[in-house]
Amino acid sequence: MPTPYVLVLYYSRHGKTAEMAQLIARGVESTGMEARIRTVPEVSPNNEQSTPDVPSEGAVYCTVDDLKQCSGLVMGSPTRFGNMAGALKYFLDGTSNLWLTGALINKPAGVFTSTASLHGGQEMTLMSMMIPLMHHGMVLAGLPYSEAGLTTTTSGGTPYGASHHSGPNGDNELSKEEIALCQAQGARIAKLAAQLTDAHIGQSS
Q: What pLDDT band is residue 180 in, cutting at 50, 70 and 90?
C-alpha cells in the first residue's frame, strides 16, 4: 500500500499562492504525514498547454495519478473574477476518469487563494473552487473558529479556507494570521486524511 500523502496542488502567477502552498505543506508535515507539492502549467488562449512538460524551476507539474493516489487534497489558486485561474480549471477538466471511477470519494479536501485587493472575491473564489471537488465526492473542510486568527485578522483568512491579501503590486508579505491559518489548514486536512484512511482500512479488513 502506498505511503499516505496530502497533495498540495496550486497555480501561482506571481508567487504568493506558491508561498501559501509551502506553508500549508509545512502544516501537513507537522502531523507526520507527507506533503506532496504540485503545480500546473500555464495554458494558452486556446486552452492548450503552452509550457514544457517539465518546469525549469519550482514544483513539478501534477499528474492525474498524483491526484488519484492522494489521501487528501489542499488546492489553491489566485482569484480570477471570483473563480480559480484557467490553468487549474484546465487540469481539473482532465480528471473525468477519476470522477467516473469514484477515485476521490470520501477523501478530505480544502482550498486556498490569494487576491490583489482585500475584497477581491476571496470567499467567492474559495467556494467556487469547492464545486468540482464536491462533484468528485470529496469531503470539504474549512477552518474552524477555534483558530484565533479568523477573528483577529485584518487581511486574509476565512472559514472557507486560507487566503492572502497580496496588494495591487503583489508585494504584501503574509501576515502572522495568514501564516498561522495556512499551517492550520494543512494540519487539519492531514489529520482528517489519517482518520479517514484508518477508517477505510478498518472497514476493508
A: very high
Sign of CA dihedral 171, 37, 25, 94: positive
pLDDT for residue 53: 63
Closest residue by Cα to residue 191 from 124, 114, 113, 139? 139
pLDDT of residue 205: 41
36-52 pLDDT, tens per residue? 999 999 886 765 656 66
- Here the cell at position 119 is 475584497
pLDDT for the residue numbered 48: 63
Vertex 83 angle, CA 77 and 85, to 5° = 45
Closest CA to 85 of 75, 72, 95: 75
Tell me which CATH code domain 5-204 carries: 3.40.50.360
pLDDT score for 151: 96
CB 108 within 8 A of CB 139: yes
